[in-house]
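4.2 Preliminary Data

To establish feasibility before requesting continued support, the project team ran the inverse folding procedure on a target of 364 residues. The structure was first converted into the token representation described in Section 3, and no sequence information of any kind was made available to the design step. The complete token record follows.
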């Protein structure tokens, strides 16, 4: 934790509570950020708290102020993210804060959205409200890493997941791959999906594995299921064509045979791209409100996604098994490196155990 001034330190416990509240909606607020807020009265007692539960719903500040009522007068609001100052699906939070008669606003991080980004703070200060910024800023920035990335880069934060044996294989030479990892690891994947806005696979994964790509009920709203296909050579019968349980989008480039769509069930969405480029796909998904996506694809698409800088995080499950075989499947194709010094170097590793398997998280 960074060094805090004396006027910041007293608000640390309250900010921790606000962060806890924000995380209650993890995976459900896109394209909006995670935000939690608490209100204390003039004597420092908790009188209101709230969190943003989803786009179009009241912001955290409004939830907390509504609960506090008139007790907020001369009080303090502690919020993980700079209050918004523009009209979106809901009115500006700065207006509500000013009207509530608060004397102080404590903020965790400045909003990277250019419509806000310091403007909310200026409006509050111009209204005579004391503003304290930077309390647990690193923690607040961490919970909104994906939102900030999408705002700054115009595409969602990309997570690439695969499961492999100890000798780095994702299947046998004959194509058999079920199941390399055991139930605890596979259950963990469902949890990861529940925190993502979309799950992306290639056509080969649909043809070979016929996946369902849901969180198995771990999220009230299932992630968007995206098939990224070059040719549209896809099976006529697949679990992904059932859109009653989750939305499905088929993304394809100019080489795709659109006659394929004539026999598909209703409800499947089409996304035609100018080229078969992971970057273009992710830009389109950002416009659909995705902050975080999960690549669950084969070696070819996974390699293309990494090359296009569309992967920021790796989640690798390693099973204590040896599959062997020179022709056995690898999670990635060749990058064309000719020296070790030119290879990708990852950082910030986190190791966890899922039953008999290991889970490794790395950042690019």
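Position-by-position output of the design step:
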């Amino acid at each position: 934790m960074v060094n805090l001034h004396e006027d910041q330190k007293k608000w640390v416990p309250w900010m921790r509570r606000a962060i806890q509240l924000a995380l209650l909606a993890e995976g459900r607020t896109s394209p909006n950020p995670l935000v939690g807020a608490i209100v204390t009265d003039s004597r420092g007692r908790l009188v209101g708290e709230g969190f943003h539960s989803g786009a179009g719903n009241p912001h955290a500040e409004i939830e907390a102020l509504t609960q506090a009522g008139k007790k907020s007068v001369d009080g303090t609001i502690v919020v993980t993210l700079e209050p918004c100052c523009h009209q979106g699906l809901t009115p500006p939070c700065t207006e509500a804060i000013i009207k509530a008669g608060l004397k102080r606003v404590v903020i965790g991080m400045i909003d990277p959205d250019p419509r806000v980004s310091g403007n909310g703070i200026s409006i509050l200060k111009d209204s005579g409200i004391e503003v304290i910024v930077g309390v647990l800023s690193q923690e607040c920035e961490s919970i909104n890493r994906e939102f900030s990335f999408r705002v700054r880069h115009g595409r969602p934060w990309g997570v690439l997941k695969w499961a492999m044996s100890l000798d780095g294989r994702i299947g046998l030479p004959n194509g058999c791959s079920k199941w390399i990892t055991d139930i605890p690891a596979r259950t963990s994947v469902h949890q990861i999906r529940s925190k993502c806005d979309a799950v992306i696979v290639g056509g080969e994964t649909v043809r070979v594995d016929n996946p369902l790509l849901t969180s198995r009920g771990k999220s009230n709203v299932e992630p968007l299921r995206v098939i990224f296909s070059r040719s549209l050579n896809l099976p006529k019968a697949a679990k992904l064509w059932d859109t009653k349980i989750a939305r499905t989008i088929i993304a394809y480039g100019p080489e795709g045979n659109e006659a394929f769509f004539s026999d598909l069930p209703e409800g499947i969405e089409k996304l035609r791209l100018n080229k078969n480029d992971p970057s273009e796909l992710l830009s389109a998904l950002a416009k659909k409100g995705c902050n975080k996506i999960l690549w669950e694809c084969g070696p070819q698409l996974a390699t293309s996604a990494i090359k296009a800088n569309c992967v920021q995080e790796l989640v690798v499950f390693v099973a204590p098994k040896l599959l062997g075989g020179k022709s056995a499947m690898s999670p990635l194709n060749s990058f064309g490196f000719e020296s070790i010094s030119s290879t990708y170097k990852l950082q910030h590793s986190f190791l966890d155990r899922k039953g008999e398997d290991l889970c490794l998280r790395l950042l690019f």
